[in-house]
Design brief:
Number of helices: 13
Radius of gyration: 21 Å
EC number: 1.14.13.2
Shape: globular
Keywords: FAD, Flavoprotein, Oxidoreductase
Number of strands: 20
Helix content: 25-40%
Largest sheet: 8 strands, mixed
GO molecular function, one term: FAD binding
Bound molecules: adenosine-5-diphosphoribose, P-hydroxybenzoic acid
Strand content: 25-35%
Strand order of the largest sheet: 6-5-14-15-16-13-17-20
Protein name: 4-hydroxybenzoate 3-monooxygenase
Pfam families: FAD_binding_3
Distance between the termini: 35 Å
Length: 390
């Protein structure tokens, strides 16, 4: 088989790229190891920057987001006894974020592909990118016991952190930067009314807590737990009791509790691979970088990669120019490092570290006092939260 672009991975990155290339008349095939139900079963975050919202508009998959998404003009930070509302709209000259689950974004992209019979091959095993350092790359895979090979011009690795694409790059050709945090986020999803109409990020002496939502009837909460915690050690009641403590008395009085429909622990890490291009192979999304979820940047960074990558490929076939391909890695990494910095800073501000110590504890407090007393500091936080320009 031959196509112009093979995309490995049918998560939000791979499907968004495929949709944008299709709308621009670029031929592509998506290879996904799992089945659609599994891809949709992974509960991920759900705060979309304006840039991501615009990308979904351009990809013609924004109808349901427009109907069911919740625009948010602000959120609350709570560190020790200081509570501060960050007025995103006021501080950024009118920008806000959209609360709409990543699972819903992926579902909308899947529906768009199904509607046009888009080439997404699920349950493709042993996917292997080949010869991407030469002019004739190809990808092999097995399906239903038969081996297949697709010749192409480019391979886009949108296969996440544990995917085959980055693993296929020779060691010497890639530099990896990583920071692993000594805790994880225990998250629950429950059909209860959110405690507030906006998100609350709280740093309590017991640890971090986040009150978020998927809709006005479906709430998403997180508490910080030590690395290695067994999710079975936390009953729903224990989680609700801890949330009441960490979110503060005001929220505790209002919080509605109920049975969890999903409960899981996610580790926290910062990770960047450099560069993101290896001949005819480009990495995008979690295949190239991971951020701790504290800044809600994971999905949005994947979208900005896809912005640069789709523009580069469309330019290559449309204007026969490789300029975008040649600058893809540098452009994407410039924005990635800023989002890494913001996500790291939010994580350092809002979590209890085992070895925090009195000085660092005062630094967290001083950071919060500065934020509460400085318009400039709040503008900086807000502009990063709503998303830096592409
Ligand atoms: N062959 C084919 N498909 C693969 C392979 C492989 N060897 N390895 C992984 N995949 C698939 C996975 O099954 C998954 O569906 O690639 C897809 C990668 O999707 P994601 O991990 O969701 O990565 P991405 O699309 O970049 O989305 C990034 O996900 O983790 C969140 O916070 C992150 O929001 C960000 C978003
Ligand atoms: C979520 O709703 O899952 C969520 C929101 C904001 C974050 C992280 C996760 O920073």
């Amino acid at each position: 088989m031959r196509t112009q672009v093979v995309i490995i991975g049918a998560g939000p990155s791979g499907l968004l790229l495929s949709q944008l290339l299709h709308l621009a008349g670029v031929d592509c095939v998506v290879l996904e190891r799992r089945d659609p139900e599994y891809v949709l079963s992974r509960i991920r975050a759900g705060v979309l920057e304006q840039g991501m919202v615009d990308m979904l508009e351009r990809a013609d998959v924004s109808d349901r987001m427009r109907k069911e998404g919740l625009p948010h003009d602000g959120f609350t930070l709570s560190v020790a006894d200081t509570r501060l509302r960050i007025d995103l709209k006021g501080l950024t000259g009118g920008k806000s974020v959209m609360v709409y689950g990543q699972t819903e974004v992926t579902r909308d992209l899947m529906d768009a592909h199904r509607a046009r019979d888009g080439k997404v091959i699920y349950e493709a095993s042993n996917v292997t990118p080949l010869d991407f350092n030469g002019p004739n790359p190809s990808v092999t895979y097995d399906k239903d016991g038969t081996s297949h090979e697709i010749a192409c011009d480019f391979i886009c690795g949108c296969d996440g952190f544990h995917g085959v694409s980055r693993a296929s790059v020779p060691d010497g050709a890639i530099t990896e930067y990583e920071k692993v945090y000594p805790f994880g986020w225990l998250g629950i999803l429950s059909y209860v009314k959110p405690v507030d109409h906006e998100l609350i990020y709280s740093n309590h002496p017991n640890g971090f807590a986040l009150a978020s939502m998927r809709s006005e009837k479906l709430s998403r909460y997180y508490i910080q737990v030590p690395t290695g915690t067994d999710v079975k050690a936390w009953s729903d009641d224990a989680i609700w009791d801890e949330l009441k403590i960490r979110l503060g008395s005001e929220a505790a009085d209002r919080i509605e509790t109920g049975p969890s429909i999903e409960k899981s622990i996610a580790p926290l890490r910062s990770f960047v691979a450099e560069p993101l291009r290896f001949g005819r192979l480009m990495l995008a999304g979690d295949a190239g970088h991971i951020v701790p979820p504290t800044g809600a940047k994971g999905l949005n960074l994947a979208a900005s990669d896809i912005h640069y990558l789709s523009e580069a490929l469309i330019e290559f076939y449309g204007e026969k120019s490789a300029a975008g391909i040649d600058s893809y890695s540098q452009k994407a990494l410039a924005r990635i490092w800023k989002a890494e910095r913001f996500s790291w800073w939010m994580t350092m501000l809002l979590h209890q570290f085992p070895d925090l110590g009195p000085f660092n504890a005062r630094m967290q407090q001083a950071d919060m006092d500065y934020l509460a007393s400085s318009h400039a500091a709040q503008v900086s936080l807000a502009e990063n939260y709503v998303g830096l320009p592409y």
